[in-house]
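Supplementary Methods, section 5.1.

A reviewer requested that the exact input to the structure prediction be made available. We therefore reproduce it here, unchanged from the version used in the analyses.
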Amino acid sequence: MSNYNSIEKIISAEILRTNEDNLIANKICNTSFAGDIKNAGDSVTFIGLNDPAVGSYNGTVSYEEIDDNAIKLNIDQDKYFAFKVSDLEALRSSIGLKDSQTKRASYNLKKSVDSYVLGLYGQAGTTLTSATVTPANALQVVAEMKEALEKANVPDGQSWIVIPPFLKTKLILAGIKFSVNEGVNGTGAIGYTDELGCDLYVSNQLSNYGTTYYALAGSYSAIGYAEQILDTQVIDRMEDSFDTAVRGRIVFGAKVIKPGELVCAPVIDGGNSI
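The structure derived from this sequence is encoded token-by-token as follows.
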């Protein structure tokens, strides 16, 4: 049994490491919450303060009462993976390899989380007019997203933009320079653009309706996110076979905390002709 416990711990570490390295939700969201997550249905709290008012000084000072602005986040998403293997030691030796079963399971959990978080585009405080994007107008489309954040008083260095891969291609063809570290299958990429003054992410998990994809931009406090790896288990000798079962489970929740600092831009691939 101790042998199984060891593998379970390794698999849990694999999931956590994949999430830390590649999960866009962990990169763009506010993850500073109070409370413990023990199961689906739990909740955590994001605590902040309302902005104090500024008054004109005329010799006296009046103190206003400011209530804690506590926002409750329900952990209402529950995802799992489960597969079986005939050779447990082969599974152990493959853990950490790029195409191992546990790595792919971790990636699929990651994609499920990112799809949920990026699917909150409907709660954005600002939605721009739909645009058909080519290299000729790619920078304009992204710059208008950044402008909308600046109108919401989100400063340079404290904002992010998530775009689909086809928009990244058009920015490159337009001559925009940014350093990109590739993630899974070319997604999860991150870079900083001097032209835009923000962090840029690329994801296949942006929501879409037909040919329209919903790019997102926001501040790093616009969305709250919390997760917990609940279980990874190795079950010896399944009832219907001699195989060993491996399964894992993650619970999480996400919520738009500051809709005024979240911008949605519907974009359509208009081709790469310059």
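The helical segments are 2-22, 24-28, 88-94, 101-118, 138-151, 165-173. These observations are discussed further in the main text.
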